[in-house]
Amino acid sequence: MLSVTDLQKTYSSGDEALKGVSLDVTGNETVSMIGPSGAGKSTFIRCVNRLTEPTGGSVELDGLEITGLSGGELRDARRDMGMIFQEYNLIERLTVMENVLSGRLGYVSTWDAFRRKFAGDDIARAYEVLDRVGLKGHEDNRADELSGGQRQRVGIARAILQRPKILLVDEPTSSLDPETSRAVMDLLTEIAAEDDIPVLINIHEVDLAVEYADRVVGLRDGQKVFEGDPPDLDETAKGQIYRGEEIPEGAGPAGKVVAADAPGEAVTEEGDLRST
Ligand SMILES: Nc1ncnc2c1ncn2[C@@H]1O[C@H](COP(=O)(O)OP(=O)(O)OP(=O)(O)O)[C@@H](O)[C@H]1O
Ligand SMILES: [Mg+2]
Predict the structure, then answer these.
(1) For 142-178, how does the pLDDT look when each residue is reduced to its tens digit (9 = 90+)?
(2) How far apart are CA 119 and CA 201, in angstroms?
(3) Which of 47, 79, 119, 127 gets the highest tally of CB atoms within 10 A of its CB?
């Protein structure tokens, strides 16, 4: 399970991208993170796996504190987090198979490491994983020959090859048409269920966020302003997330910010804002 507490990031430019965001993601749940452009969604995911260095707070994965790790320990911890990106981050001139295997290297890939590393086991498993994401028969295609949907499937295959403990997904569907987007979301939630791992997805399309998530988190201006069940994301809540509207006194359950592991019990900092 992922447990993030009071995560902060101030870029050297002075931009306060995260102003203390806490979030738990557990079991095999799918959590969608929504919010306007610049809310801090990508920064959040990047701070979790330390592609970006947080300036405060704590990130624990399965009880291991990720902040403060370096070298081999950080590499190992990152292998436990499968990252999937909007722009796929494939190596264009390599084949589908080579791109998928590059996931075994974690985030530090060199050609030498690449050549030395792969045992027959890895390759056999890569075939399996490619079959699973629907790319059987495409192993030897170059990445630059694929459609957007296929490219994202390669990204997903690469992420799951390393048997991660969680999937961190940043805008997986932004470059895809609606039908392909749904196929990708289907695949991600299927993996969560079958591999029994949680998935955290940053996503712009609110409809998809609601349809596929077990829980929705709304970020605005570096703060968590909503957390709840998808049906609670009504117009009031959306107004709060996307337009910074205050929640009216006596509003129903919508827009309620609750602690993830203790629904209805704790009033978080954000909850306090609600009554002001
Ligand atoms: N490398 C960076 N250096 C300085 N500021 C940055 C950097 N990356 C992001 N920011 C700033 O941090 C804030 C949050 O950006 P972030 O990319 O996390 O938002 P986002 O919610 O992912 O937005 P989008 O929906 O457009 O992807 C913004 O104000 C952005 O300008
Ligand atoms: Mg982003």
Answers:
(1) 999 999 999 999 999 999 998 999 999 999 998 899 9
(2) 32
(3) 47
